[in-house]
Each structure stands twice: as C-alpha cells, then as structure tokens.
Amino acid sequence: MSSMMALLKAKIVVVPLGEVDFTLVNRLATEIGPVFDRSVDILKGMKMPEEAFNVIRSQHYARVVLSKLERAKANQREKVIAICEDDLYLPDENYVIGYGDHLPGVAVVSLFRIRQEFYGLPEDESKIYERLIKESVHQLSYVFKVGQCRNSRCVHYETSSMMEIDQKAKKLCDICNRRLTGKA
Ligand SMILES: [Zn+2]
C-alpha cells in the first residue's frame, strides 16, 4: 500500500527510548509504515525520562513518558511511537505493555513483559518481534483514532495476556481498516 500519498501525509517516528535492541526497532520501522500508509523515520534515541520512574513500584509511569514524547515532536501532525525495555504502569493497572493517546499523537510500547525470559522461558526472538509489532500496531491504531475493536482475531483487539497477543492476527480487521482510512 506504499504510495505517493504516504509521502504527503505526516510521518510516523519510531523512537528507541533508552537502551533498546536496534534490530527490533529497525524491523518495526520497516513494517509499520505500510500498515498505516505513512513514511517512517527512526529517531536517534532518547533517554527514558527520570521523572517517569516510580521508586515504590519500580516502574515507569506511561503518561509521563507520553508527555516527554509529545514535547519531542518536530510538528503537531507527526505520530510518535517509542519502544523501551522498562516496565510501564498506569495508576489503575499493575502494568501496561503499551499505551497510546490520540490527543498528543504518541504511544509507547515496552519489551519488558514481551520478552520470554520474563516468564522464565528461553528467549525466542521471533515471538518477541511478533508481539512487538502487534502491540505497536494496536497502540498506533489508537493514536490514529481507531476506536476499540471487538474482533478477537484483529490486531487492534484489547488483550491482557501474552497468550492472547500470540493468538490474535498481525493484521487489522476490515472494520478497523475502514475506520483508519475514514471510510467507516
Ligand atoms: Zn479490528
């Protein structure tokens, strides 16, 4: 779906936040553009904001991370997705794998719980990447104002476990795709 239109639309900027495996970031940047029909840039890298760290929870507050990303935007229109290795939380959740907000146009995805080793299992790079792209497409869909999806096969379906993430498809369903292109 890569087209001339993609060049005219605002970019997606992928941001490695802190120390992140660049192979994963690079692959994500390559594959995420066609999903949203946008061109993609990779930012050199940014430090995880210290003010996001909650000492008691030993996690980073996702909302503070989003504020920092919003301030780093080159213009209002571009959409930002950051990838980090740190564990993220929201006040009402023990943790979040990812978090996106369409108002600032930014999202963040954490590899912390996506990694197999978190569950005491051997590392499986292919699984990690699949989960990363699924969660990234899911969060970016929110950024592009695609509302919640009830189709459990759709990549934009809200999941709470790695098993559910592994089970859903990598693609947006027809309804989400129509919402994305404004034809719903
Ligand atoms: Zn859907």
Account of the protein in words:
The chain is α/β, with parallel strands linked by helices and 184 residues long. The protein is 34% helix and 20% strand. The protein has helices at 4-8, 22-36, 62-71, 125-143, 162-167, 174-180; strands at residues 12-17, 40-42, 53-54, 59-61, 79-84, 88-90, 93-96, 98-101, 106-110. α2 crosses α4 (125-143). The two termini are 19 Å apart. The model has no long low-confidence stretch (mean pLDDT 92). Residues 149, 151, 154, 156, 172-173, 175-176 line the site of zinc ion.
What's the short version?
By secondary structure, the chain is of the alpha/beta class. The chain is built from six helices and nine strands, in the order αβαβββαβββββααα.
Q: Which features characterize this protein?
A:
single chain; 184 residues; alpha/beta; Collagenase (Catalytic Domain); 5-stranded mixed beta sheet; 4-stranded mixed beta sheet; 6 helices; 20% strand; binds zinc ion
CATH homologous superfamily designation = Collagenase (Catalytic Domain)
| CA distance, first residue to last residue | 19 Å
Rg over C-alpha atoms, rounded to the nearest angstrom:
15 Å
Q: What percentage of amino acids are in beta strands?
A: 15-25%
Which fold name is given in CATH as the topology? Answer: Collagenase (Catalytic Domain)
- Supply the number of structural domains: 1
Instruction: List how many beta strands DSSP finds.
Output: 9
Largest sheet: 5 strands, mixed
What oligomeric state is this?
Answer: single chain
Instruction: Point out poorly predicted stretches.
Output: none
Ligand inventory reads: zinc ion
- Highest CATH level, the class: Alpha Beta
